[in-house]
Design a protein that fits this description.
This protein is mainly alpha-helical. Helices cover 58% and strands 10% of the residues. The radius of gyration is 13 Å and the shape is globular.
């Protein structure tokens, strides 16, 4: 089964990226610099788009993400980021219907 839509956690700037890195329990798996993260994230977006998937960038403030993880029983790490981004993508796609 091919992925049709994918949410990816997106950060609006370097300051926000560093705020999020402070709260993630697995920040060691992320790039230290925003520019490195952005370069890698854009490659991921391009790869999925080239395979025909719709990529939705999920923006949030740290407090929104923390609240969402708590309310949905998710950890504040890659699992939580993926679940949050996909929930945002779903909301975006449903809103288009």
């Amino acid at each position: 089964m091919q992925v049709q839509a994918l949410g990816i956690m997106w950060f609006k700037d370097a300051d926000q990226y560093h705020q999020f890195r402070k709260i993630f329990t697995d920040s060691e798996v992320l790039s230290v610099s925003y520019s490195d993260w952005l370069r890698d994230a854009e490659k991921i977006v391009k790869r999925y788009q080239n395979s025909g998937a719709t990529v939705i960038k999920a923006y949030a403030e740290p407090s929104e993400f923390l609240s969402w993880c708590l309310a949905n029983g998710k950890t504040v790490d890659s699992e939580g980021r993926m679940a949050f981004a996909n929930a945002k993508a779903y909301e975006h796609l449903i809103g288009k219907s």
